[in-house]
């Protein structure tokens, strides 16, 4: 993932720009609204993203990841789910 200041830009947004997919214009507008310079008149969108990274306006950001939950809905699924690794539910406890 890449970041503009403290704002994380999703890989899907960047992919739309690189591959010139539907929604590319909105994705470019999103980056420009965050304060990045727009692409040049005849600049390739993928080259524009590379230039923003080279100029360190877009920086690499490592995302910690998301949680995955498993809810077994049937007796068979509960039996099969017994072999899955289990961790405690991630709660933020109030300050004591």
Quick recap:
36% of the residues lie in helices and 8% in strands.
Give the CA-CA distance, first to last residue. Answer: 36 Å
Q: Kindly estimate the percentage of residues that lie in beta strands according to DSSP.
A: 5-15%
Order of helices and strands: EEHHHEH
Number of helices: 4
**Gyration radius, rounded:** 20 Å
Counting DSSP E segments of at least 2 residues, the number of strands comes to: 3
- Spatial strand order of the main sheet: 2-1-3
Please describe what this structure looks like.
- By secondary structure, the protein is mostly helical.
- It has helices spanning 11-18, 24-33, 45-54, 75-81; strands spanning 2-4, 7-9, 59-60.
- The chain has a three-stranded antiparallel β-sheet.
- The longest helix has 10 residues, at 24-33.
- The protein starts with a strand and ends in a 15-residue tail after the last helix.
Jot down its keywords:
mainly alpha, 4 helices, 96 residues, three-stranded antiparallel beta sheet, elongated
């Amino acid at each position: 993932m890449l970041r503009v200041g403290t704002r994380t830009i999703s890989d899907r947004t960047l992919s739309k720009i690189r591959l010139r997919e539907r929604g590319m214009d909105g994705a470019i507008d999103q980056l420009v609204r965050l304060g990045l310079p727009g692409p040049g008149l005849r600049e390739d969108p993928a080259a524009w993203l590379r230039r923003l990274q080279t100029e360190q306006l877009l920086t690499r950001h490592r995302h910690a990841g998301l949680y995955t939950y498993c809810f077994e809905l049937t007796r068979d699924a509960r039996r099969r789910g017994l072999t899955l690794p289990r961790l405690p539910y991630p709660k933020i406890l109030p300050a004591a």
